[in-house]
Amino acid sequence: MAEGSNPPTLGTVMRGIRARNGWTLKQMSTRSGIPVSTLSKVEHDRLTLSYDKLQQVSQRLNIRMSDLFAEGADGNVQQVTGRRSIGAMDDAVRVTTANYDYHYLCTDLRRKRMIPLITRIRAHSAREFGELVRHPGEEFIYVIEGRVEVHTEFYDPVVLDAGQTIYLDSSMGHAYVVAEGYDEALVLGVCSSAEEGLMDSLMSLHGEVAA
User: Fold this and answer.
1) What pTM was estimated for this model as a whole?
2) In which band, very low, low, confident or very high, does the pLDDT at 209 lie, cut at 50, 70 and 90?
3) Is 189 helix (H, G, I), strand (E, B) or coil?
4) Were 49 and a residue from 12, 40, 53, 110 both cysteine, which residue would form a disulfide, CB within 3.0 to 4.6 Å?
């Protein structure tokens, strides 16, 4: 099979970034905050980086997260079949904001078109929530526990009980708050977009990774 017919590995991408900037491993380590020994193993495909470390590299090198998940210079992506990821809350990337606790699942898979997450909702009113959220794509929400009031830009608020769902256009302003009579609510969400950088868009809304 000709070289370049497969999507590049993270090691190939990291080597390319270092080569384009003319950095030594030590210089790359200083700039990214990743130890030299770890970088060497990553570049030789003997080790990968957790999602929080990838975000650290993205922020410190001032590059988009999607640049670390490059799919080849020609933009052609080989069809991926048979891959899978087992997710667990203990392995999730947790992001805490004033309104939500997000738990991103299956972060070991790159180039995902769907972003699965478990979210604990804390805000109790649209006023407390603040400005409606917007990002590319669509999303699906399933209420696991509690009761959720969904506010959207173009529709009247709707209340969802445990076991109910909503599917909406994520570019429409939206907010999920806890319905009256409950302290918190827990939902399963799936965000999807045909555009690259969906994870970047979501993370930019949330702030820093908490754990």
Assistant:
1) 0.60
2) very low
3) strand
4) 53
